[in-house]
Structure formats: C-alpha cells, structure tokens
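ESCALATION

Customer reports they have been waiting on this structure for their group meeting. Please prioritize. Original submission:
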Amino acid sequence: MNIQWYPGHMTKAKRQMAESLKQVELVIELLDARIPKSSKNPDIDSICGNKPRIVLLNKSDLADSNINKQWINYYKNLNLQCLEINSLTGSGQKELTKAINDMFQERNARLKAKGIISKPVRALIAGIPNVGKSSLINRLAGKASTKTGDRPGVTKGKQWIKIGSNLELMDTPGILWPKFEDEEVGFNLAFTGAIRDEIMDIIEISIKFIEKIKLISPDSLKSRYKLDDLEGEEADILDKIGKNRGCIIQGGQVDRERTANIILDEYRGGKLGRISLEMP
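Update from on-call: job pushed to the front of the queue and completed.
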C-alpha cells in the first residue's frame, strides 16, 4: 500500500509560505511529538533558510515523555531550540513565550534605544495538516481566532493573529510534500491522522498499526483490548479486538472497518497510553 496525499491547494500554500517569510522574523515549526521525523516536512528547511526557528513537539502528552526528552536533545545538538507543548491544554505556552522574548531581547533593546517602545515580533506557524497550528494560535490568543478541527485540511489560507502587544502570528495551511520516499513515513502520518482517512484502506492501515504496536508497546494492545496474547497474524488480532468490542455484523462476521476505526481513534486520543512511534 503506497500512501500519498498532496491536494492541489498545498502547492499554492507552499508558494505563499515562501513569500510570507519576507514579512516574518521567526518561524515556529510544529511537529507531532509521536512522530517528529515523519511529521517534519523536508521542504521547510529549504524554504526557511537561515530564519530563526523554534521547534515545538505538539501533542507531547500523547508521546512517551522520555523519548520527548531525547528529541529535545537531538534538536539541541542541531542548535535549534525545541520545546514540548500541548496546543489544546496550553501546556508549554509560558515556555514558548519566554523563549521568544529571550530570542529577541537584543533586538528589542536596540529598538528601545531608538525610541521604539514596542514592536511585535512577527512569526510564521508552519507544520503538516492536523498538527495543531490553529489550536496553538487560539490558545495563545485566548480566543477562537482561527478555525480548528480534528481532521486535516481545515485551514485554507494564511491569516494574521495578534497575540498581545509583543507578538503577531501568521497561521498557514498544513503542507505535506509531493511524495513520501519512505513508506513508513506515509503509514505514520496515517496512524496519527495527518492524512484523510477517506483516501486510504482503513482496515489495512489498522493492520499495519497493530504490526507496529506489537513491537513498540505490546502490553498496551493486550491491556486495552483484553487480549491474552498477540499470537498469529495481525488480521487475526484485528478480528479478536472486533469480537471483544462487539463489532459483529450479520452472519457473525467481525465488522473490520468499524474495528479499525476504533483502534486508530483510540490511539489518536491517547487511550492506548503515551506511545511514541519514532525515536531520534
């Protein structure tokens, strides 16, 4: 199964982002803490160039806390500041504000010396679909300034949002890249909801997910779905989960599609526990 998703509007959004960089002093790059490698658009580095950047591990409460720390150290070694954040609860918000203030302390001092008391830092929020950009902006603004949703593709165009007197943020549509060279990247994006479920075979995605979780966190599967063991093929495990959850259709067969949706929805909602799918 070769997963690819690159709607036409993403080409336009990528071009708009490149043009918008002339108007900003900072790039805030959001990654999904569960899949920092797979959720990093490789085009961002070339688009942003030498523009100052802060990397945020969003949905950090859904990822393994120890592995989050490893990713923070990984980016530190690349001379990039990296913070854990949860755009829904506001966790990490104060740390982000402090990091921005510290980064532009000298710039603000120079402006003050020229008699300019307050000039907001203009920052661009970048990331893949459904990573939480609009939710972060709404949390920082303290109001619903942008549209949000639990599915990719909600933000369609760029928009500026003022955050207090010291910061202005530009929200941009989530952008993927034209081709996933690594099949695993496509699956990781599918597992976490960055790609529309409607364009994929949800049953096959769930079977691949079971295969991965058997290696990473087998006990979470056994505990959540009351499985005695994880023996046999992944499709058989899917059927066992379906039976245990009462996903039965006419003739006594397991409703695999319903079961698949339950498994992926519960992983995305953190009901299987804090599970990271990638390590640095």
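Sent to customer with the following note: The domain at 201-268 is CATH 1.10.1580.10 (Conserved Hypothetical Protein Ylqf; Chain: A; domain 2).
Escalation resolved.
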